[in-house]
Amino acid sequence: MTQNHVAGMEASAASVLMRAVELDQNGRFQESLVCYQEGIQLLMDVLKAVKEETKRGHFRERIKGYMDRAEQIKAHVNQMKEDGKYHEEIKIAEDSTGYSYEVLFKPYISSALTEVWVEDPYIRHTHQLYNFLRFCEMLLKAPCKVKQIHLLTSQDEANSSQQSSALAELKDSLSTQGVDLDLQYSSTIHDREIRFDNGWIIKIGRGLDYFKRPKGRFSVGYCDYDLRQCQETTVDIFHTKHTKSL
User: How far is residue 27's CA from residue 85's CA, in Å, rounded to a whole number?
Assistant: First the structure.
């Protein structure tokens, strides 16, 4: 492994761990834990590549420090979950970027996740239907084995045929991936909530529709939602030991 490659890995580890510390300081513990774990793994890869004993000792010390903090956070989060007191708030600022579904939901997805409930009144218009499709694609790519997705939404009275046709097509497409889409409509739905059967509950003020319209079809952020500007909204995360259908 070349010196430049090792230096690159070390820089990547420093960037991830800096983010972990920032999240830690802001009380976003579950997210910080994921970043600590990723950063520690990168540092361990660097340690394997470094031959000089002085540097190896330096990296071992750094790894131990970050591992100790990660264990403290893990114990704290587990205790809060056990007590039913876990609550985390994320504020997404107007025009901010870096909040794709992969980034937002990743800390709460685990191998134990098999069933998801989505309650969102605005899965109706074309861009909202695409948002839900992207959310489903995110689950398919995630390190979990989701078998069923429940969607509770309102019916688009102005263009119900487009909505029902799109969701029927998505249901068929998901079935080829071994996932069942359970679709229900409600005329009184208002709240927005996403519930995972591993206990996590994510409430987004704007639901899945928190992205701004791109400036054009060939503008940055049109395809990559990490680069898409967001509308201001708040995300509240809770955990319960007892999941139930919506």
Answer: 14
